[in-house]
Each structure stands twice: as C-alpha cells, then as structure tokens.
Specification:
Blueprint lengths: L18 H4 L2 H13 L1 H68 L5 H22 L7 H29 L4 H40 L3 H25 L5 H61 L6 H22 L7 H26 L3 H9 L6 H33 L3 H25 L3
Length: 450
C-alpha cells in the first residue's frame, strides 16, 4: 500500500499573498527566495548537477579511452614498423658496402656469393626506403629530407661501385679510387642519414609509449566524483521523501560504479602491458639494434682496413671501440634476468663476438707482418674460423634477438590495446543508463509537488 507522505516543504502554490502584499519589491524577493528554497527546485538543481557530471564523465572517459587505444593502434600500424624499416635500411646499406669492399679485396672477379650478397643488400635498401617513406606527414620534414637524400645518393653509390668493379676486373688501379669515393659517400652521407632515421624512429616509439603508459587518471577521478555525488544525492532524496531506497538513483550508482571499476582495471592493465612493452621490448630492442649497427660498422672498418692497407690504425681503433661497446651491451643484457626474449640469441652473439675479436687480431698480426695475402684471407675468406663467418654468426644472432624483442614489444602493445577494446562505447552506454536512472528516480518526487 503506497502511503503518501506530506513533503516537509510546502508546495510553491501554497505561498499566496494578498494582491497588495505582492506589489512590493520585498514581497517579490521573498517569493523568489521561497521558490529557490522549495524542494522541487532543489530536486531539479540536483538533477541538473548530476546530469552535468554524468555527461562530462561520459565525454572524458570515451575520449581518453578511444585516444589511448588509437595511440596503441597507431604505434603498431605505423610508428614501430617505420622504426624497424629504418633499422633494416641502415643494415642493408652497411651490408652492401661491406660486400662491395669484400669483392674488391678478392681481386678480379669477385666470388658469386659476395656479388649476390651485394645485389640483395642494395635491393633490400631500396625496398626499405619505400617502406620507411610510407605514412609520412608534413610534420616529418627531417625524416622526408633524410629519405630523399638516401634515395638520391643510392644510385650514385651503386654507379661508383659498378665503375670500381669494372676497373678492378680489368686490372686498372683507378678502380681503388672509385671504390674509395663510393665508400666515402656511404660512410659520410648514406649511413649517417639512415642512422638518423633510425634514431628518430626509436624516439617516436618511446614518446608514443610514454603517452600511453599513464592510466586515464582524469576520467577515473571524474567518475569517482560522480559516484560520490550520486551517493550523496540518494541520501538526500531518501531523507526528503522518507523512503529508504530510490531504485532509479541506485541504478545510476550501479552503472557509474561498474564503469569506474571497468575503467580502473582496464586502465591499469593496459598501462602494465605498455610498461612491459617498454621494459622487455622497446628498451632491449633499442640496445640490440644499436649492437647490430656497431657490428656492421666494425665489419666495414675491418674490410676498409684491408682494402686501403691502412697503417694509421684509424680503422683498427674504430673496430676495437665499436666491439668494446657491443660487448658491454651484450654483457648488460645477459645480466638482466628479467629479459627473457632474445636471451638465447644474445648468448650466441656473445660467443660469436669473442670469436670475431680473436679472428680480427690474427688478421691484424698478419697485416703487421706484411703478409697481405694471409690478412685478406682472414678478413674476407669463406672459412669457418675467419672474420666473415664470425661476423655472419654475430649478425644472425643479433637479428634473432631483435626479432624476439620486437615480438615482445608488439605482443604487449596489442594486449594493451585489446584491454581497452569496447570500453569507449560502453562508457557512453553505461552513463546514459545512469542519466536515465537519475531522472527516473527524481520524477516521482517532483510529481508529488504538482
């Protein structure tokens, strides 16, 4: 049986004054003040405040979640692949230069394997150049400039190499000059531009991950305020109406609370996955990529040491400096027990690294003795104990480690994005339900004053 309780505040219509009394300003002020203090007006104001909070919560939650998910998707679709393409572009250019110098050292007609490696590397460089240019915007002017320079200079480089190769096959000494010019172009123009591309790509990945790693605190905080306001509103309405429960406002509290819990759990889970992508994916990937670049620079220095019969020690110093840095990277990686991805490949790389240093030392000793033939065999020979095999083993191990850590990065980024899937539209749905619940809960109370 529905028992109707007389509201504690009298309806507005009961405050009726004589015509003479309502003509004065004081009387009109008193009427307005009475109206504002009346229960219906207070309930309407309460409903408007809750509406504003719910609409603001829906807008902020949907915007932040969809923006966060779009950031993860953009990283997976374009930013990270472009950084990987830049690293592969640098690698292809470096391999092409080392293969060209190796072919020159071989004298006459270079081995077919060396020639094939050079052609494959130049083709890959052209392919990765196109991939790296995909998705550029007007804001990527530095990146576009570097790509344009590489695209412009790569045909010049290959032309110089072909000229050097032709003269070398016919025994003309001028071939060495063309090779030197081509190598200088590669070392001073092409490779620095490719390395800057890679550096900018890595920085873009890191910046994007930093933007995505923070939980959506603003949306969470606003939802907390909204839930608290709904609870206060329920207490006020229950006290005014002398009824313990208000189903409409309780539905609003439940819907908003459900969204708050979902957003809190999903936001923290997404941030955790992103953190893991940084610590176990992006950071070790950057280290291993740097290590591979150092290995390729060392190989180039080693081949140029033989090709130019350098006696200044400059190329040997470059080799030793780069290999020492590479050794530190591999040692630091091995000491971090949390890095599971690529750990086995890094152990293989450390063995190949040490073996290459020993092979290089034997090559330098032969060169110091004046035994150029023996030094050439140790530097570019096909034997399993010579520098070529050691470098190939090291590069393959580093490539495997890079692939493993890149997979770790992408898997965690995908997990971070998937955790947020569906949350943006559901935040609008749940808060719409809450908004309807508020006014459904207030409507019977307002009707009591009609």
């Amino acid at each position: 049986m529905d028992v109707r309780i007389t509201p504690p505040f009298a309806p507005v219509e009961s405050h009726i004054r004589d015509d003479a009394d309502t003509d004065t300003p004081d009387a009109r002020f008193d009427d307005a003040r009475a109206l504002l203090r009346s229960t219906p007006v207070r309930l309407v104001v309460l409903g408007v405040v809750l509406t504003v909070l719910l609409v603001a919560s829906a807008a902020v939650s949907a915007t932040m979640v969809s923006g966060r998910q779009a950031t993860h998707d953009r990283l997976l679709a374009s930013i990270e692949p472009l950084a990987s393409a830049a690293q592969n572009l640098y690698s292809a250019l470096s391999v092409a230069d080392a293969a060209a110098v190796t072919g020159f050292i071989s004298g006459g007609l270079e081995p077919e394997a060396v020639r094939s490696r050079y052609i494959r590397a130049t083709n890959e460089a052209a392919e990765y150049l196109v991939i790296a240019a995909t998705g550029l915007t007007d804001a990527d002017r530095e990146t576009a400039h570097n790509l344009t320079e590489i695209g412009r200079l790569l045909p010049v480089y290959t032309g110089l190499i072909e000229t050097a190769r032709t003269n070398n096959r016919t025994g003309h000494p001028v071939g060495a000059a063309y090779l030197g010019e081509a190598s200088h172009l590669m070392q001073t123009e092409l490779l620095p531009a490719a390395q800057e591309l890679h550096t900018r790509g890595v920085a873009a990945v890191e910046d994007t991950q930093r933007d995505a790693v923070r939980p959506p605190w603003l949306a969470i905080g606003l939802l907390l305020v909204t839930v608290a306001a709904l609870c206060v509103a329920h207490a006020v309405v229950s006290r005014r109406s002398r009824r313990t429960l208000n189903p409409g406002i309780l539905v609003a509290i439940g819907a908003t609370g459900a969204l708050l819990c979902w957003l809190l759990v999903a936001g923290l889970a997404s941030s955790s996955a992103t953190e893991r992508a940084i610590e176990r994916g992006a950071a070790p990937l950057a280290d291993l990529t740097e290590g591979r670049i150092l290995a390729q620079q060392s190989r180039t220095a080693e081949t140029l040491l033989i090709a130019r019969r350098d006696t200044t020690g400059a190329y040997d110093d470059t080799f030793e400096t780069n290999m020492a840095r590479l050794g530190n990277i591999l040692d630091e990686y091995g000491r971090d027990s949390a890095l599971e991805a690529g750990a086995e490949a890094v152990e293989t790389a450390r063995s190949a690294h040490d073996a290459w240093i020993n092979s290089h030392a034997r090559m330098v000793d032969a060169l110091v003795r004046g035994d150029y033939a023996a030094a050439s065999v140790l530097a570019v020979g096909a034997g399993p104990g010579e520098s070529t095999a050691r470098f190939v083993a090291l590069d393959a191990a580093l490539t495997e480690g890079i692939d493993d850590t890149r997979t770790e990065l992408r898997d965690n980024e995908f997990r971070a994005s998937r955790t947020l899937a569906g949350l943006a539209p559901m935040s609008v749905v749940l808060l719409t339900v809450a908004l309807v619940g508020v006014w459904v809960g207030l409507r019977p109370r307002l009707k009591e004053y009609q």
